[in-house]
C-alpha cells in the first residue's frame, strides 16, 4: 500500500511499551512476533505507538464493528473514511421511516425468536445479527434491549418513538432538556 507514515494506537500497554523498547519481552511465545514487528517498523519513514486505556478506546471498537460489517476482497479499492473528532458527544434523535413497514429491530426480533436470518443475508450480515441479538430478549411480540445494569428497555418503532419524544419533550413530561438529558429520561422510562 506504500504507506510511509503510520500512527499506531493500542489498548494493550504490554504490547505498546514492548514495541517502544520501554519494557522487555520475556514471554517466549511473543518474542517471534516482536522480532517480526521490529522488522516491519523499518519499512516506515515515520511510525509512532500510543497506548490508549480501554475507556479511551471507543474509536478502535467502532472501527472493529465497521470491519465486521464491511465485506471486502483483497485488492478491492474502497472509499476513504473521514472521521471528525468532536469536543463533546453527539446525540441523534432522527427517527427513520420504516420503508418496508417493519420496525428497525425486525431482523433481530425474528432471529431471537426463531434463529432465522432475513432472506438474502450474507455471511457478515448474519454474523452482525447474531452479535446484536445477544443483547436482546423477546417476550411475545415485544423485544427488549438488555441495558448494562440488567434492566430491560422496550424497543419501539418509528410511530412509538415519535410519541415518546413528543411526550418527553413537550407533552406529559414537559421537559425542555438537551438531547443527552432527554435520552437518559427516555431510557429511565424503559424505552430503547
Structure description:
It is built from seven helices and five strands. The chain has helices at residues 13-19, 31-41, 58-69, 106-114, 123-133, 158-169, 179-188, and strands at residues 5-10, 46-51, 136-139, 142-146, 152-154. It is elongated and about 60 Å long. Helix content is 38%, strand content 12%. Residues 2-66 form the RNase H type-1 domain. It holds the Pfam family RVT_3. InterPro entries: RNaseH-like_sf, RNaseH_domain, RNaseH_sf. This is RNase H type-1 domain-containing protein.
Give short descriptive properties of this protein.
RNaseH-like_sf, 5 strands, 7 helices, RNaseH_sf, elongated, alpha+beta, 38% helix, RNaseH_domain, 192 residues, two-stranded parallel sheet, single chain, 3-stranded antiparallel β-sheet, RNase H type-1 domain-containing protein
